[in-house]
Design a protein that fits this description.
This protein has helices at about 50-70, 90-95, 115-125, 140-150, 200-220, 235-250, 260-265, 280-295, 315-320, and strands at about 5, 10, 15-25, 40, 80-85, 105, 130-140, 165, 170-175, 180-185, 230-235, 260, 280, 305, 310, 325-330, 330-335. It is of the alpha/beta class. The protein is globular. The protein starts with a strand and ends with a strand.
């Protein structure tokens, strides 16, 4: 069977199982609507460390360890780790990997990293190169603001289009064998840039890439939006979510019935003052490993299209007046195989 469909999609002949999932979130996320779904809610953002970056490393490391434990595996049974974060040189992830002694692929897809890690991990398993792999990512509000925007001490007023970087980490163990849910298809995104330069409006900069990936996934698989119980993008927030609905509608795809965004779901934007919603690598990761997969266990959802989105900017590119390219990768997760 030919695995490559259309322009961007892969169909797995032996779909990997999501054997286990783990999530850790910060105190603000622990006060949001999805709080009951998370494994660990931190009392403070430093978690006993003396810097935000060290805290993020600890969050990622502990989340990976929890995912391995929940899978009833030993660390030595994991053959590869695919992971990344938002910091320069993947600092949080690279330092977290020091104690695992497991072959490691460091990934940077900005906030799309969870889908990138799951995609490559699934390819590794379907290709027969591994039995167990970890896919993970992390982000931290304080470390991300420090790197990409302003020192927190300045107290700079945020525009209503701005989103709140999620503090946390999500990790899954992908396995060659298991009873599901399964990663059945992936659609790898393309970089899409419509010239938006406002780094405080990442929903608008990422929405074109999200819409492009969703549309191409549906074209490649010959599916319609109503095939899925849930279509969920990563961290577009309220601004980007509405743009995706409009862009898909221009191609005659109606997403109004079963589409939402992790950045919309993770916070109560009004009571928690998060403006457009959540963002950051962990936004999609903890929503998947907490809310989505636990609802799949309850059979609330049986077919999910998960599309984390990334804004491919840096502090340097913003200072040089560059626009903000976007990317989005889609992962189809299904409880049963066709």
């Amino acid at each position: 069977m030919w695995k490559h469909l259309g322009e961007q999609t892969i169909r797995f002949e032996a779909p990997p199982t999501i054997l286990s999932a783990a999530s850790t979130v910060g105190p603000k996320e622990g006060k949001g609507p999805l709080a009951p779904y998370f494994d660990v809610i931190l009392e403070d953002v430093l978690w006993g460390e003396d810097t935000w970056e060290k805290a993020e490393t600890k969050i990622l490391k502990e989340t990976i360890q929890r995912a391995i434990s929940k899978a009833n595996l030993d660390v030595e049974q994991i053959q590869y780790i695919f992971a990344g974060d938002l910091l320069n040189q993947l600092t949080a992830t690279s330092f977290a990997m020091r104690d695992f002694k497991i072959p490691f692929f460091g990934l940077y897809g900005a906030c799309s990293t969870m889908a990138e890690s799951m995609s490559l991990g699934a390819i590794m398993i379907d290709g027969g190169y591994a039995d167990y792999v970890i896919a993970a990512t992390s982000s931290h509000y304080c470390s991300a603001e420090k790197q990409f925007r302003y020192p927190l001490q300045l107290g700079v007023q945020r525009p209503l289009t701005a989103s709140w970087t999620v503090t946390g980490s999500g990790a899954v163990v992908l396995s060659k064998e298991g009873l599901g849910p399964y990663v059945t298809y992936i659609t790898t995104g393309k970089v899409v840039d419509l010239g938006i330069k406002d780094s405080m409006n990442m929903g608008a900069s990422m929405a074109p890439a999200a819409a492009d990936t969703i549309i191409n996934h549906l074209l490649d698989t010959n599916r319609t939006p109503d095939y899925y119980d849930l279509i969920i993008t990563g961290d577009l927030g309220s601004v980007g979510k509405q743009l995706v609905i409009e862009m898909a509608g221009e191609h005659d795809y109606d997403l109004s019935k079963n589409y939402t965004d992790c950045g919309v779901e993770i916070f109560d934007a009004t009571s928690q003052d998060t403006h457009a919603g959540g963002s950051g690598c962990a936004c999609a990761a903890v929503t998947l490993t907490g809310y989505i997969l636990k609802e799949m266990e309850k059979e609330t959802f049986q077919k999910v299209l998960f599309i984390p989105t990334g804004a491919l900017l840096s502090s340097l590119s913003s200072q040089q007046g560059e626009s903000v390219p976007g990317i989005a990768h889609a992962v189809a997760i299904e409880s049963q195989l066709e």
